[in-house]
TrEMBL record:
This is 4-hydroxybenzoate 3-monooxygenase. Residues 2-342 form the FAD-binding domain. The gene is pobA. InterPro entries: FAD-bd (IPR002938), FAD/NAD-bd_sf (IPR036188), HB_mOase (IPR012733), RIFMO-like (IPR050641). It holds the Pfam family FAD_binding_3. GO terms for biological process: benzoate catabolic process. Transmembrane segments: none annotated. It comes from Borborobacter arsenicus. Its EC number is 1.14.13.2. Coiled coil: none annotated. GO terms for molecular function: 4-hydroxybenzoate 3-monooxygenase activity; FAD binding. Keywords: FAD, Flavoprotein, Monooxygenase, Oxidoreductase.
Length: 389
């Protein structure tokens, strides 16, 4: 079998890239090691930057997002038993859209199916080959048979544990990493959100986040030790802990109910450089991970897709390799700014086990400065709504 671009991974990066390419007449095949329902069962991101929304519009998958997504013009920071609103719209002229990653993925999968494009689910032992030549190919196994797809380019959209980054010789790649000494315990419940916008709370007991998926579905997180087990967190314990970490006015807005998803995620910053090795490009979580505090992971995946799509489009349309050659540099320039922002938000809002009293006062001063200085608020807002790409 032959195609122009083999895309490894059917998450939001792979699906969005595949759709943009197909809309421009560029053939592609997506391979994923799991099936559609498994991918749609993962609860992940919830906040889309305007640039991500525009890219989904360009891909032709924005109808439901515009109907059901919630426009948010601000967020609140909570500390010292008070809410402090950051007016994103007034400070930047932009807003964010609350629309779950699950829904984005669903829309992209539906569009791909309707366009008659090929996705091979349950593909085992996917392996990219010869990407340092002009004739790369990808092998995989399915239903006991071995297959090979020849192509011009391979896009590694296979997340942080995928095969693409692992296939690059170790001496060709440099990695940068920071682990944080805590995780996020997240729940989803069919209850109305505490507030109409997101609340990021810094509290002596630890960070908490009030988010949502719709006007009747809430997503909440609390910072927890890395070795906590889900079994130790009954719904009742979760709701109690969440309320204790919020200002009274926000806690009063919490409607409790049974959770239908509960999980603990570790927090990590990670970047691999470069993001391209000959004809293999890494995209999204395959190349970088950010802690979720800045809501940047999915949005960074979208900006990577944008740069790679432009490179591939110019290659096939104009015969120009300039965009492909620039991919890693263009993507990484934006990646590092989002890595910085996510690290900064994480540092400012969480309790670190080894923070001394000096560090504690610095954190308090930073939050106070942030909400009372228009310049500092504008900087947060500019990053939160997303730097241009
Ligand atoms: P994905 O979504 O991990 O998709 C990768 C796909 O590749 C497949 N795969 C393979 N296929 C073939 N062969 C192999 N060897 C393979 N190995 C893996 C996998 O099955 C999968 O289908 O990566 P992608 O597309 O780059 O998308 C990245 C986003 O998923 C991620 O950045 C965000 O979810 C991060 N994130 C958030 N991002 C935001 O922008 N805003 C948020 O509010 C936000 N909240 C979050 C988050 C991530 C979270 N978790 C659990 C990690 C909240 C949480 C809790
Ligand atoms: C979410 O709704 O899952 C969410 C929102 C904002 C974040 C992280 C996660 O910063």
């Amino acid at each position: 079998m032959r195609t122009q671009v083999v895309i490894i991974g059917s998450g939001p990066s792979g699906l969005l890239l595949g759709q943009l390419l197909a809309n421009n007449g560029i053939d592609n095949v997506i391979l994923d090691r799991v099936d559609r329902d498994y991918i749609l069962g993962r609860v992940r991101a919830g906040v889309l930057e305007q640039g991500t929304v525009e890219l989904l519009e360009e891909a032709g998958v924005s109808r439901r997002m515009h109907e059901e997504g919630l426009r948010h013009d601000g967020i609140s920071l909570a500390f010292d038993n008070r809410l402090h609103r950051i007016d994103l719209a007034a400070l930047t002229g932009k807003h964010v859209t609350v629309y779950g990653q699950t829904e984005v993925t669903h829309d992209l999968m539906d569009k791909r199916e309707a366009s008659g494009l090929s996705t091979i689910y349950d593909a085992a032992n996917v392996q990219p080959h010869e990407f340092d030549t002009d004739t790369p190919y990808v092998t995989y196994e399915k239903d006991g048979a071995s297959h090979r797809i020849d192509c011009d380019f391979i896009a590694g959209c296979d997340g942080s544990h995928g095969v693409s980054r692992r296939s690059v010789p170790q001496d060709a790649i440099r990695t940068f990493e920071r682990s944080y000494p805590f995780g996020w315990l997240g729940i989803m419940a069919e209850v109305p959100p505490a507030d109409h916008e997101l609340i990021y709370a810094n509290h002596p007991r630890g960070f908490a986040l009030c988010s949502m998926r719709s006007e009747h579905r809430s997503r909440y997180y609390v910072q927890c030790p890395l070795d906590d087990r889900i079994e130790d967190w009954s719904d009742e314990r979760f709701w109690d802990e969440l309320r204790r970490r919020l200002p009274e006015e926000a806690a009063a807005g919490i409607t409790t109910g049974p959770s239908f998803e509960k999980s603990i995620a570790p927090l990590r910053s990670f970047v691999a450089e470069p993001m391209q090795f000959g004809r293999l490009s890494l995209v999204g979580d395959a190349a970088h991970i950010v802690p979720p505090t800045g809501a940047k992971g999915l949005n960074l995946a979208a900006s990577d897709v944008h740069y790679l799509f432009e490179g591939l489009r110019d290659y096939y349309r104009d015969g120009s390799s300039a965009g492909m050659e620039a991919y890693s540099g263009r993507a990484l320039a934006r990646v590092w700014k989002a890595v910085r922002f996510s690290w900064w938000m994480t540092t400012m809002l969480h309790r670190f086990p080894d923070t001394d009293s000096f560090g504690q006062r610095i954190q308090e001063a930073e939050l106070d400065y942030l909400v009372h200085s228009q310049v500092a608020s504008a900087s947060l807002a500019e990053n939160y709504v997303g730097l241009p790409f």
